[in-house]
Amino acid sequence: MLSYRHSFHAGNFADVLKHLVLINILEHLNTKDKPFCCIDTHAGAGDYSLDGDYAQKNREFDNGIGRLWSLDTLPEAVSDYVKVIKAFNQTDKLTIYPGSPLIIQHYLRQQDHLFAHELHPTEIEFLQLAIKRDRRITLQHTDGLKNTLGLLPPKANRGLVLIDPSYEIKSDYDTVVESLFKFYKRFAHGTYALWYPVVDRTRNDQLEIAIKESSLKNVQLYELGIKPDTLEHGMTASGMIVINPPWKLTEQLRNTLPYLADTLGTDGKGHYRIETLVAE
Ligand SMILES: C[S@@+](CC[C@H](N)C(=O)[O-])C[C@H]1O[C@@H](n2cnc3c(N)ncnc32)[C@H](O)[C@@H]1O
Question: What span, in angstroms and rounded, lies between the C-alpha atoms of 239 and 242?
Fold first, then answer.
């Protein structure tokens, strides 16, 4: 049973890093005229009202996009990210937060395509409303990990697979890595971005070992934490594991993650990691 709803978390510190990395990859794909294909395995509801009951419950966005929204001087990658979020808001007030499929839609040109998957029956309805009619986008009310294998390699032969599960059950960690290995076998030069939470560090350690011992090449890890690891309940950090990242991404994050750790960290306890899990 799916119970996760991203509207409780939209725009939080984890979304900041995830969507900042996503935007950097999309901007890189846009540097060539050749078409690209994006596959979003776990798309969510599309956009989120930050004035709504769900977002207001814990106001997680206050310690994410909310903190960056009105700052004048930002590192380049953060500024690019905030500009995109501002494009979805009609006024200076932050009320709407776009999810990954809308951010991707923002970057699609006529020649590009997005396949977005969402399994939750309510979220897929919201997603349809948010995307509206767009012949460049195929929405799939189906299991994104199972369906993606059949879409690879994409016709355009360049692009991104974004894998952003909610990790509701422990076995999700294994399923995600097994799927990633299968995808890579079919489309080894594609870019893959896998989001992960840090809730219990031992699971992250296992995930990283599995990747290091695999046949994947050119794998980078970028992580942002707002509190030290703990055995208590709750997410303290999150990260993106990117296979075949754009060449500028690591350099940009070296200028960006220290800033985000300082700005979003709780009581000066923010931290970050940038690591090469597997070399090129
Ligand atoms: C973390 S949210 C996605 C957020 C979105 N990617 C974003 O960045 O805005 C994960 C979503 O995946 C959906 N989901 C869970 N398992 C799925 C599956 N096997 N296939 C497709 N969607 C799934 C959940 O209903 C939830 O809406």
Answer: 10
pLDDT by position in tens, the chain (length 280): 678 899 999 999 999 999 999 999 999 999 999 999 999 999 999 999 999 999 999 999 999 999 999 998 999 999 999 999 999 998 999 999 999 999 999 999 999 999 999 999 999 999 999 999 999 999 999 999 999 999 999 999 999 999 999 998 888 899 999 999 999 999 999 999 999 999 999 999 999 999 999 999 999 999 999 999 998 889 999 999 999 999 999 999 999 999 999 999 999 999 999 999 999 9
Q: Whose CA is nearest to atom 4 of ligand 1?
A: 44
Q: Identify the CA nearest to 264 among candidates 59, 76, 66.
A: 66
119 CA from centroid of ligand 1 (Å): 7
What's the Cα-to-Cα distance from 266 to each of 191, 222, 242, rounded to whole Å?
32, 19, 26
Q: State the pTM of this model.
A: 0.97
Query: Residue 256 has which token pair?
Result: 């960006």
Contact 113 CB / ligand 1 (< 6 Å): no
Could you tell me the fold of the domain covering 6-199+243-257? Rossmann fold (3.40.50)
Scan for tokens 């750790």, then name that residue.
261
